[in-house]
Amino acid sequence: MAKEYAYYIEGNKVAIVERDTAFDNNVNSKEYGPGVSRAMWKSPKTSVTDGLEIKYAYSPKYRINDIGDKSTSITGYEESDGLLKFTGSGLSTDAEITYIVISNSEKWNGLHKIKTLNSSYWIVETIYNGTDVVENPTAHTDINVLNDEADTIDIPSYLSKALVYYVKARLAEDSGQIELKEYNMREYKKHIEQYESSLMKGPRIMSSGPYAIR
Length: 214
Description:
This protein is α+β, with helices and mostly antiparallel strands.
């Protein structure tokens, strides 16, 4: 019997669970009865040798303009008055650098806002209380952070149409135009449904309903 897996997200971690297909007929168990535990998800009891494919959509708060441009090697990190301090040599002191993105770090991958720039260290507004650590992550400074209305949201063009309908629905709701709001929400959900349907592999099956082709 093929194993069936699922996942859930807790914080920035992904947990894998496996559907329990065993029958439990122990009368002293809360899972007593034929097939009761078949609907339960539990931690996997066996190794996954062929890998798992997880489809997960994420809209980032930033975009690295050029992965190989304006990147700096860091030599480690330490605490500075309760904040995270990246150390190095020949670090940029360009006042236009307000954010950095860290990669290849054991703990600090992601976006950080700059508080202090110095040629031998960068202090960011990330809270840290701990010991000095030596490691060699990479800091990217050529990034575009989504922090104002002039930024471009990096989503597929078809989903951008859905976003327009969603905004129109909220504006209509704020102005008390309930029918217009409901119309735009239907169009929004329709575009989302059709986009998700386009990602499905395999033959399509005709079914009834407003989104007939699945």
